[in-house]
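Dig into what follows:

_____
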Amino acid sequence: MPFRIGERLSLTIDDIAFGGEGVGRVNDFVVFVPFVLVGEVVEAEILEVKKHFARAKLLRVEKPSPERAEPTCRHFGQCGGCQYQHIAYATQLRLKQKQIADLFERVGKFPPGVIAPVVPCPQPFGYRNRIMVRSQWNKPEQKLNIGFVRWDCGLVEDVEECKIAEPALNEQLRHVRAHPPPRGGLKVVLRTLPKDWDVPPDSFFQNNFFLLPKLVETVREFVSAGGARHLVDLYCGVGFFGIELADAIESFVGVEYDLRAIKSARRNAAARKINKGEFVAKKVEDVLPELWKQFPPQATTVLLDPPRKGCPPRTLKMLCEARPTQLIYISCHPATMARDLNILCADGVFDLVHVQPLDMFPQTQHVECVADLRTGERLAKPPDMRSTE
């Protein structure tokens, strides 16, 4: 082993890996350190040693980067919710674009030029409309901790205020703290619901209302550029994208396994007098073969907004076999997205035209991406990739 647990060393950081950890090297042996920036010289303590890398905790910044920022939250560095509060916001955007480009090139050999600059959030703090807080009995201090799991262990950091959560959620957090759960080990979901949308308590909705209009605009531009007449919205949740894009296509269908979400989707469409679409409560892979009879692939855009784990292999195989004219893939997890796009673009079935990242999660490692894929013979000119910073 090149290092001992507890050993201290000085490192120069030469990269920030996807996930937020800085990369330092000692004789080509990689050491990951959180809460650092490229070019910084830091003192770190080894926590874990593996065959090909080690992990360390930051002790001191010996030579800070000019792009280092003062964290707004006093819990930053302990709470596991944020990874980038120590980085100036414009630098966060450039960092995320580079990480996505590197990831896509490594996983799928996609050229960096398809990754557009990251669209910034107009409100980098106070944007989250949903958080999950946990309770845990703090035996040494004989009190109940209520907050978020720390990044370095399974313990709960006691949090009085979350700087990236909407003010209304912090009001709810104060109420939870004033009326704590009866014991540790419980989870409490706090959220503010979108105005004029029917959303069941456990159903998904985008977590950032401030950047949501730009996300819809991006998807709309891709649909318009694709020129399809129909839209198949897979993993549609409460019908948000199908309803928002209804005026851009002739007809659409939303598919979602969660029956409660589908019922909400139907109510959301009825409330807006949208009658050119339908919503189906089935598994995607079970309903796709029948959908092509109503929505011819050569005239259809398929919108994919799967969970973080990505699409099942069977679904990807069925899409490759059907070859719809356009696929629009939305994901908050670039790694699983790159994996799935690699499968979809294998053997030239689809071509990746454009990826537009949007910073739906400022101060964190996470980023939302929208990818535009076309079948080869229908490949069109990508949208204008102007900087959005």
About this structure: Residues 89-108 form the longest helix (20 residues). Residues 1-67 form a domain with the OB fold (Dihydrolipoamide Acetyltransferase, E2P) fold (CATH 2.40.50.140). The first strand starts at residue 8 and ends at 16. The chain has three domains: 1-67, 93-121+206-378, 130-191.
